[in-house]
Design brief:
Shape: globular
Strand content: 15-25%
CATH topology: Rossmann fold
Number of helices: 6
Distance between the termini: 42 Å
CATH architecture: 3-Layer(aba) Sandwich
Strand order of the largest sheet: 5-4-6-7-3-8-9
Number of domains: 1
Number of strands: 9
Length: 188
C-alpha cells in the first residue's frame, strides 16, 4: 500500500488517527480503494440500538460495491490472522469501538492490545487501522471515561509503534506523523 503525497511511502500496516467526524474513515477508505481491487471491511461496531443500526447501514451503503464485510467486535487479532492476505487489503474501522467492546465485556485491554500489536508485523497482507485520537479533548468527568481515554491512548501508541506509517486526519486533511523526519537539534 502506498501513501500518496509529496513522497510515496510503502508500508504494510497504516494507522489513521483523528477526532470524531474528522474524515479519518473516509481517508482510510480512499487509500484502501486505491490500493487493491479486493477489499475487506473489518467492522468492530455492533448495532446495539436503532441509531447505531442506522449508522452501520449508512456506512455500508457509502462503501458501495467492491467491499466484503466481516463483523468482529472482540476477536480482532484472530480475525486479522484469518483475513489478511497479499491480494486483499483489510480496513479495520475502528479500534476505538473494539476497545470499548473489550471493556464492556469485562476483558482486560492490556493483553488484547499487546496481542494485536504483535500480530501486525506477522500479517500476510496490508491493513489500514482507523482509531480516534481521544487525548486532545476535555478530560472525561467519570472514572470509566478517564479509564477508557487512558486505554485508548495506550492502544494508539502500541498500534502506531507496530505500523509502518501513521496519519492524523483533521478537518479532512491528512498529516503524516510516521515516518517523520528527525530534527537536527543543536543545544547552545
Amino acid at each position: 500500500m502506498a501513501l500518496s503525497g509529496a513522497a510515496s511511502i510503502d508500508c504494510r500496516a497504516l494507522l489513521v488517527l483523528g477526532g470524531a467526524r474528522s474524515g479519518k474513515s473516509r481517508y482510510a477508505q480512499a487509500l484502501a480503494e486505491a490500493s487493491r481491487p479486493q477489499r475487506l471491511f473489518l467492522a468492530t461496531a455492533e448495532a446495539g440500538d436503532g441509531d447505531m443500526a442506522d449508522r452501520i447501514a449508512r456506512h455500508r451503503a457509502e462503501r458501495g460495491e467492491g467491499w466484503a464485510t466481516r463483523e468482529e467486535p472482540l476477536e480482532l487479532a484472530a480475525a486479522l490472522r484469518a483475513e489478511a492476505r497479499p491480494d486483499r487489503i483489510v480496513l479495520v474501522d475502528c479500534l476505538t469501538l473494539w476497545l470499548s467492546n473489550l471493556m464492556v465485556s469485562g476483558r482486560a485491554p492490556a493483553p488484547e492490545i499487546a496481542d494485536l500489536s504483535r500480530e501486525i508485523g506477522r500479517l500476510e497482507g496490508p491493513v489500514v487501522f482507523v482509531s480516534n485520537e481521544v487525548g486532545t479533548g476535555v478530560v472525561p468527568p467519570t472514572p470509566i471515561g478517564r479509564e477508557f481515554r487512558d486505554w485508548q491512548g495506550r492502544a494508539n501508541q502500541e498500534v502506531a509503534a507496530a505500523c509502518g506509517a501513521v496519519v492524523l486526519v483533521t478537518a479532512g486533511l491528512p498529516m503524516l506523523l510516521k515516518p517523520a523526519p528527525r530534527p537536527n537539534v543543536r543545544l547552545p
